[in-house]
Prior knowledge:
Layout: H1 2-10, H2 19-28, E1 33-42, H3 45-55, E2 63-72, E3 78-85, E4 89-92, E5 102-105, H4 115-126, H5 128-132, H6 141-151, H7 157-163, H8 176-193
Antiparallel strand pairs: 1-2, 1-5, 2-3, 3-4
Helix pairs in contact: 4-6
Amino acid sequence: MFIYFKKTIFNYQIKGYNKKTQNIINQFGxxxxxxxxxxxxxxxxxxxxxIYLFYQIDISYCFHPSLILELDLEKGRRKWIRxxxxxxxxxxxxxxxxxxxxxxxxxxxxxxxxxxxxxxxxKRNMGENKFFNWHILQxxxxxxxxxxxxxxxxxxxxxxxxxxxKNSVTINEHNFVYFFLEFIATCFSFSNxx
Length: 194
């Protein structure tokens, strides 16, 4: 019912950046990216225990990937921005770093690009609908971060292995796990909308 409501009746799709993200792009979009870190944040314990309780599937090894970008500002100053994708694209200047977050420094860019160039090139490569919108199985945070790393030409096989968690949980579209994951995706969409 939730899937039907979301896709047929509600037909909610994101067509651009939220206001906070757009403000960060307006302010820092022209600044060059100096360094990049891949940050893998473990899945919230609430989801881990909930899925295990109902479906006996262990997702404790799953994580949410994001990028931390160091931007060059004028007069040798630096700015750190986090970029991630949940139900939409989020850029943040203020973010938490937890003890169990895994930081992976990536190689420096051969040719520096600006934050705006990174986003616009990735959007062109992915297509606007796939770039802005999210699906827990077919177009999630991992797919988005992978595309950003391809755009910056830093996606090595080693980095791809550290990022990859596809097929770590076998999901049949006709079982309850798929329904539960769709329910979570719907909740994210509703929370973003309201």
